[in-house]
Every structure is written in C-alpha cells, then in structure tokens.
Specification:
This protein is α+β, with helices and mostly antiparallel strands and 464 residues long. Helix content is 34%, strand content 22%. Helix 2 packs parallel to helix 11 and helix 3 packs across helix 11. The radius of gyration is 22 Å and the shape is globular.
Length: 464
Amino acid sequence: MGARGDSLPSPWLAEVELDYAPPLVGDHSVDVAVVGGGLTGLSAALEMAQTGASVALLEAETSGLGASARNAGHLTPTIGKDVPTLLRLFGADKTARLLAYSDAAILHVESLISQHAIACDYEAVGNVVAAVDPAQHRAIDRAAAAAADNGLPGCLLDGAEMGRRRLPASFTRGFFEANGGVLDPARYCRGLRQAALEAGVVVFDQSRVAGIDDSRPTAVLHSERGRLEADRVVLATNAYTPALFSRGSGRPPVSGARLSGARSLGLGSSGLRLQVQLFRTAPLSDSQLSRLPWTGREGIYTAHEALESYRLTADNRIVGGAKWVRYGFNNRALADVNGRVAEGLERVFRQRFPELDDVAVERHWGGPIFLAMDFLPRVGRGGRHGNILHSLAYAGHGLAHASYAGKVLVDMMDGGDGPGSVLWQRNGLPTPPEPLRWLVFQALNRVLGLVDERVDRRAAKRRR
Ligand SMILES: Cc1cc2nc3c(=O)[nH]c(=O)nc-3n(C[C@H](O)[C@H](O)[C@H](O)COP(=O)(O)OP(=O)(O)OC[C@H]3O[C@@H](n4cnc5c(N)ncnc54)[C@H](O)[C@@H]3O)c2cc1C
C-alpha cells in the first residue's frame, strides 16, 4: 500500500475513489439536514429523499472516514449482547420483536446492495460464533438453542460438523448464523453515498457542524463557513456524538449558535465511546490457502466476553481483531492504534491460525464504536420542537443497524409500527456519569478480561 493508503484511517479506504463534495458555504435551506455521513447518515438521507423531501448532508470529513469504512465488514444479525441475554433482560415477546427487527435490517442491506448495484464484494456466507475451547461450548449451545427457539436461520456446529465445513481447526464448536455474511465496508459505504446522491441528496463534505440552534421550529445548523436551515435534523454522529456536545471539544460553537437544544436530548452521555482495533494480512498465496481449509469463507467471531473476529477478504487476506477495546475518560477520543493491542492481536492471530505462520500482518488500524448500557441501538427524537431525530449506539454491529436507520426513522416520523418501533418505544438505560463510568468500565473490562484469559490459557494448553 502506498503513502496515500497509510494516511487514510483504514486500508479499505485506499482502494476506493474518495471524491470530496464541496463544503457548505453561505446560507441554505432544506426540509431535512443530516449531520454525519456514515451509514446512518447516508441511509437516513436516502430514505428521506425518497419521500420527496429536500435533503442536505453535512459531514465533517467525507463518508466512511468515521467507523463506516473502518470496520471488519461482518454483516451479522447480532443485536444486544446475545439472544440468551436478551431473553433474560427483556422477556420472550420483546426479544422476538428485537430479533425480527435485526432480521429485517439484514434483508434491507441485501436489498440496498442489489437495488443500487453496489459492488462491495458481498459474500452471503453467514457468520459463525465460534468456541476456541470446550469452556465456551455451553455458551455456544445456549445461543444455538435460543436462536432455534426463536426461529432464527442457523444451526449448531459440533466438532465433526466444524470439520466437515472445513472451518479452521482452532475453532472447536460453533453456532452458524445463516443470515448475512461479509463485505468490503468502504465499497459499500461509498456505494450507498452514490445512491443518496442519485436520489437528490446534496452532500457537503468537510463541513463540521459546530452548533445547532433549535429555539425556533426551523432549526439552524452552523458550520465554519455556512449556515443551513432545516425543518428536521437527523443526528447521525454515533461515537462522535459526545464530542459534538462536549465543551472541551476544542471547537467553540459558532457565535450565536446553540447546542443546548440538542443537549436536551441527553445524547452527550448516551453511551460509551470505545476504541476497537483491527489488522489485515498480506494476500494469502496459493500454498498458504491450500494449508487453510475455510472453503465456506464464513465470517468468524469468537464466543469470548470480548470477541475476536476473523474473515477472508475478496483478495484472500485475513482481516481480524477486536478483543481488547479501550475507553478514554469522559468519552475522550483515543489514538486509532495502540502498540500493545496491535502486538496482542497479532500474537492471538498466530495462535488461532498456526498453519499461517509465514503470513505477514501488513497493517493495523482502529476506530470508535458506541455502546449503550443495554447494548441496544438508541433511536428517538427530541429538541425543543421534537424535530431532532437520532439513531446511534450499535455496539459494534452497525453495518446492519446503521444501514436500516433511515427506514426506522422515516417510520417513526410517520407514526408507523414497523420492525424498528421496538427501538423507539423504549427508554434506554442511562450511562453513569464520570468518574463512575470510567471505574465501571475498568472493573468490567478487568473481570471479563480474566474470564477470556482463562479460556485462552486453556486453549493454548490443549494445542500444546
Ligand atoms: C474497528 C471497527 C470494527 C467494526 N466491525 C464491525 C463489523 O464487522 N460489523 C458491524 O456490523 N459493525 C462493525 N463496526 C461498527 C460499525 O462500523 C458502526 O456501527 C457503523 O459504521 C456506524 O455508522 P454511523 O454512520 O452511525 O457512524 P460513523 O460511520 O462513525 O459516522 C459518523 C460520521 O459523523 C461525522 N461527524 C462527526 N461529528 C460531526 C460533526 N460535528 N459534523 C458533521 N459530521 C460529523 C464523522 O466524520 C463520521 O463520518 C465496527 C466498528 C469499528 C470501529
């Protein structure tokens, strides 16, 4: 990868055309203003334009430079922590509604890809939640049983079935989620942007929103060089939302602009901004591929408390990572890559894929995810005139949820009761204030980390 690739926040971005739209300059007015041009913002802009509204999208950089083109590209129906936890927290009826919603989200992504002919290397191969040690088998069995009870497409893969499917030998048991698969997130995100442009959305790149004044029914958004009036605003800033409302963000609000209306949404502390890291190997040679079974090319993520993920790309590299997430006090943005995490991820990759000991890891990168206390997406509306909508906090599984956000928000505005209504008809759990939030994160991270370390030690011992 050349110098341009290394300066971009993910290697996927180096392989797409990154044309920037001109920034917002001067005064403009539209029906709907969307803040943030990742998958949430693009899907909201596209859906609202399709209702006949005039739509402008304001993006601080350009589409994909947030999480949407940095992610690992696993399209999964995962919602909440897992199905057994959903059942415990919400009961059978609500769990069934949440699962129906996430199923609809996957189908929606697949229809976007085909309807807009988005060339994003989508492989509808499903994903496997995999154990690396028998200590995780009970959790896999529980997840498979709960999925079967709720009619989700998929099945339990015992050791023999894992072998028959030629999944990598380090994974001892699995639950196959048949819906979804893997894709190239940058091609997908930029394809969705093209679809939004073709639907008439006006995109302003490099137009960071520094203030929203919602004192009148028509909201006014301020960026460095422009001003945009809109009857309705969609906040699509996901993990960047706390920075939008933080006084210490280093970007003083434009004179006369106000963030207070948006602050009344309570979004500044709606979740935890967590930093996730990934890596990518060189393309596997024919000889390396012949050593690696994995012919079904399913995405894999592990049954750890903090999961590891692995997948093959269209050019047969392995993209993997997650496992060690980091949190900065008061949702502070952290460096994309931490050296110790990078070393740890590479070490674990070597353990899981001993047959690939001669494959180079070429690049590490990272990005922020946003996590609500109940792990569920937050969708709602607020502001002084109830015309500031939001959808965020996808707990690291936003490919499906963010892409479906536009449909859900349009349905909410229309007073509908589609699959997404389960999200706006609930009160999210409040995130504890600092310093409690930091302490809770550190304590949970430590305890869950110890559980995972124990599993990993056992897995390493078994291999020896
Ligand atoms: C490393 C990593 C791996 C992941 N892997 C997966 C995966 O395999 N599968 C999966 O389903 N999900 C995954 N995710 C999560 C997924 O990428 C996100 O949930 C999803 O992209 C969120 O989309 P979004 O549009 O809400 O947010 P983003 O893509 O982050 O978009 C928000 C946008 O808002 C812009 N913005 C911020 N502030 C302002 C402002 N003031 N004015 C204007 N614009 C602003 C930002 O520049 C950004 O472009 C992963 C995430 C990360 C970071």
